[in-house]
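Wait, mind explaining this?

_____
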Amino acid sequence: MFGGKQVVVCGYGEVGKGCAEALKGMGAVCMITEIDPICALQACMDGFRVVKLNEVVRNVDIIITCTGNKNVVTREHMDKMRNGCIVCNMGHSNTEIDVNSLRTADLTWERVRSQVDHIMWPDGKRLILLAEGRLVNLSCSSIPSFVVSITAATQALALIELFNAPGGRYKQDVYLLPKKMDEYVASLHLPSFDAHLTELSDEQAKYLGLNKAGPFKPNYYRY
């Protein structure tokens, strides 16, 4: 149960925003840590307190890292956490929580069940560590088949493009998918919701400087 729980989400980027909104919707009291003043201002204007982890670490029930950084939650932080605090990572690989600092002779690990460990301090305090600091959205949950369908369709179209592309079009580099391709995949999945797209008139398309068939946003646009 998340209702009333004190939760800190470290990082208010794309992952942190979604995580914080979900927690808020479930009734949690959610706080944010941020290094970026723009993301911090977004969090404030979305109704979240922006804090330093050291300021609140003794009183929170759940800490979730979503920064993409390393050592966001350190042994010093974990030494101060209350009994029963849940610590997990939704950010970058397994670097955000300093799990190696917990593998010491003074602490005891107890496997509760798959992907859930109790870390016990000499005074009896226990922290609950999920997935040993790895990504909980991959380790402790499943991805909805509909989301997999969208992702797989996009990957399939990208592979078809690479296969059919003339030699020299693509180098060994990372390329953004064309907006047109993303829009096509989205359009394939809209019938599942019985969604009906509005179509631009010729006059409206000319006014916006768009092709009626898309793409509808520039490549730099972030949804």
Q: What stands out?
A: The first strand starts at residue 6 and ends at 10. The radius of gyration is 22 Å.
